[in-house]
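Convert to structure. Protein one:
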Amino acid sequence: MKKLLLIALLLFSNLIIAQSTTNLKVSESAEYKDKVKSNDILAIYTSNTGETVIARNSKKTLLFDVFDTNQEKMFNKNVEVSKKETYVGDLYFNNQLKLFTVYAPNKNDRILYCHILDLKTKSYKKVTVFETTVEKKQSLFGSSRRHNTSFAISPDGNYFAIATDNIKKNRNAYTIHVYDAETLKLEFKKSYQEDETNTFTHNDLFIENDKTVFSLGKLFTNGKRQKKLNGDANYQFILNKITPSAVSDIKISLEDDHIQSLSISVIENKLHLLGFYSEKNVNRVKGGCDFIIDTNNLTIANQKKNLLPKQVFDDLYSYRKANRKKKKQKELSNFEIDYILNDSQGNTYLIAEEFYVTQTYVQTGTAGGYWQTVFHYDDILILKFNTSGNLDWGRSIFKRATTPSYNAFLKNDQLHVILNSGKNLTEKNDGRTKVSKGWFESSALYDFEYAINGDVSYNKIQDNRGNEYYLPYFGTFETDKFIMMSDGRKKKTFMILE
């Protein structure tokens, strides 16, 4: 009886916080049926005329669907591909989806294909981009948890760039290919960061309208480990500038601080490198940093770094613990950048999720057991930088999940974070609001809305029980609308937030 009473006290010790209904207009499409089962969404985009294109993967088939402004299917194309053909990235511009796959017929040969779906003509074609050879079953592209960092299209949509890895037996190098976006004609090809000892790993890519390419990455000093034995970074961030006639680079550093991660962002026609830094080691976050690059001379025109504000700790920890961590300038861990969003005033929002992997041993009896790998997609960190590169404010979301679970977009200069959580958000005794689902609790879809000054309101979109369960992670925000798909295996619907 005492145990039951204790459990009841624990269950009801948290207070249900005040929640309101989202200010966004919510609508759902009519249900439609898939001929081929697939929840593996590769790309989703909305055209300037309101049509939505979705590319999915199902075993040996690529599925392309186009929906009209009412989310009714108007075009479908299923393309058979080899089991040795793998999706590696996509681009969308001027009502065309370009989806890239790599075919590996054997351990050395690689063929890059481009699957082009034209929304205007409702036509599809598959084009060979290039063929090459690799050594040691080497992959052409590095992996990224969320971003297509190896593909970039110019702001005017006329050219796109591809960064490939060319690790050979005795030499490391990357290669940039630049193509005409309309004809897929090769404009130029250039190798960079060729070295017999040090390895370069590409992280982000940007191409200007004049075909100048900027490749941001890490140059490792010894092998490819992120850290040295003492925890110091085993790499140096390098920004490469590649043109048809020349290659140059610049080292990006903050004296003795470690740069945990960086991404390229263009703000008011200036190239910024935004990210996190740490005083301890490469897995931690002490604050945000911003490097403004003079792209003509390839120099650092200005640099800023800002400590995490106290509100970040208040959102994650109890009152006393948050005060202690801020006072001692403690650092966060394992955050990876997911989104860089720019508002109409030139401010920039950097949004990251805590990601790490653990392994637990599961005992199956006297015969032994097995190791189980668990992926953790936990707390969310939000930093807002103003046009001067200074940190305006920072917030965080105390969250626990084992799969990618959220999406973010700006509408009317207000940040919206869309995610699924327990039916009722609860405020813990220590003041935190935890985003998770209890053992016996149903779930709900939420809109965390952040005002320009960082104040947050917790807005419920729907209770999921009795309704379709939607997947915010696989969503797209275009033309002032956020569209996401339900998780049904064959019967699906869309939710539109506007």
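Protein two, convert as well:
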Amino acid sequence: MTNNFSFRQACRKMRGSALALGCSALLLTSMGDAVARDLKLRWGVGMEVSTLDPAYQTNNWELATGYNMYDSLVWPAAENGVKPWVAESWSVSKDGRTWTFDIREGLTFHDGSPLTAEDIVFSMQRLLTLNAPGATSFRGLTPDAVKAQGDHSVVFELDKPSSSFLAALVTFKILNKDLVLKNLADGPHGDMKDYGAAFVRTNDAGSGPFELGTYSQGELVTLKRFDAYPLAQWDAQAPATVEFQITPEMATIGTKLRAGEIDMGDWSLPIRVQRDIVADPRFAIREDPMNTAWYLIMNNANAPLDDVNVRRAVASAHDEATLIRNITGAGGLMGGPVPDAMLPNCEPIAGYDFNLDKAREYIAASKYSADELTARPLKIAAVAGSERFNNIALLTASNLKKIGLNAEVQAVRWADITAAQSNPETAFDLVVFYDPAKYNDPMLFLSYYRKAGWGDPYPPGGMYYHNPKVTELLETAQTSSDITAQQKAYCEAAHLITQDSPSVFSHTEVRTTTYWKYVSAFPDGGGAMFYDMRFENWRLDTESEDLKRNQP
């Protein structure tokens, strides 16, 4: 693999020379069948990819795009959290505040320029300065606390120890500093202007296994294999191209999947449709239990959800069993804010069972009169085009009416939901939402239950919940190096949060995906969602007659 990479680098330097043609031919031969055929993986997805900027990516398909175009310092590993990737090793000081990462040599971005420590420093400083959604997991850093030591070493100086810092680095993506600086637009960040936000939103500045082919917002994203990628050995059956065909209508996705016009269906495809499709033996279905939590995010800042009894009433009117049976098709009940598997040593959190009579008792105990509670309908935001989200919102609205609360369902673009959450006055009363475990640490879910998470442009950023004791416990968990003490603090915080009911904790996800059997889908992602969607690790069966027919 190293020799292949060196040869590719030499070929790059010959561009425009008389030797270039022969060099390219030799390179093609050296890679074998991996580039001999344009194997294409086509996925019909329901949500648009509104940005290519990894700092701002929040929905499933944005994240999947970013995780393939960009690389991270570390790679998730189920057995010990993370393993080396762009960083070949690291060390941490005795006080837990100073992290030093040694960077591999010989890595390049898609434009052929070298990836160095300066790119990593720039990328983190950019993320923190923009205060983008991706910055949520790095609150203990300031931009001036990230420094390069030569070309191949980076130092992070945390303001206090952080037990989740290393795990969170799987979400931190590295951008090409020089390319971004060449494409600055007017903005509020001094010499950095807009920090390249306009450019990176629609262009490629990465080093990952795939580079951008086509980006047509709301229609199509095409990724093409980066042949010079040194961190993977390309397989002859790995896809050379990946297409996200953005199709908000679930019925259309089902029709295209049956017709062989796409290879994978959105996992939001209604479960009854997926089970009907998989009755055809040419298709496969996967049902993967995930550390992914479904919520109804509530805006605690505004009436009437500023009253804990109203929030408890909403939680008691949430019919998880019907939702799982008739809408999502599978899932496990959640008592508190974190999937049980991520807090294995906690005493069970009971939560709020579906009980309309109990919900009415909570309503009667609130500070609001019946007239006040019906004066303004609660706005429930559901992602436009998602049948699952819309049906959950409709079920919620129906049950809230039964306990004396008015509610109206609004179909809203994902990008507009996240933008609205950044201000308590514009944040929706309730948002149907699920959050995947992008890394394996409870703080991923709990970071929004403190003032530091207020206003993040992400659904739970619009929760505006505060309990001083919860904040204290989360601080204890974050700064302790004792795993037992961390777990104890997280458990106590989760119990207190549940009592306050700042959101409805619904159920965990079973990701259900239907696809043609010639696709080998979702290989091991090391316990972190979206790393199982790194497409250099996927395979297409080139001997399949169905593949040959669908992709002539």
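The domain at 71-202 is CATH 3.90.76.10 (Dipeptide-binding Protein; domain 1). The CA atoms of residues 1 and 432 lie 46 Å apart.
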